[in-house]
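Q: Predict the bound structure with zinc ion.
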Amino acid sequence: MEHVAVEAVDDEANALAEHEVRKPLSRALGTDYLAMNYFELSPGESFSGGLHAHNDQEEVFYVASGTARFEVGRDRETVAVGPDEVIRFAPGEFQTGGVPADADEGVVAIALGAPGASHDWDALDSVVYCRECEAEHVHETRPVEDGQFQFTCTGCGYEFAL
Ligand SMILES: [Zn+2]
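A: Predicted complex:
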């Protein structure tokens, strides 16, 4: 058995995202098959860095308070997820979520991913602008040095780091 208080878990921001409070609960618990993160987002903050998909994980968010706004799919359908609501994204489904900058209150939420307590970065895709294609394209995304990520355009193969 493992038992921890959320407030006792140190904050650790996602390298690609803007948020002040992200607590990796699954690491504190030593989970084998489940990733679990606690978030407190202020208006303007996000869970993740942008539109992305995990090809090896489904993701579920439970919103405890406030209203999170997600953009889903390549056409960025907007979905509001309010208090005591849950939303699930299938493996390979593109999504990004956060709190609009003009929101009146922040969000407290739990994010769950399975299987896998840590990401297989080879299975992460992000939608970002490709200056060679001069359009948004899916990019294979993997971490490199200094908290940066390398993006490889699946349209033209152009590579860059951010
Ligand atoms: Zn390209």
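A: The chain has a mean pLDDT of 91.
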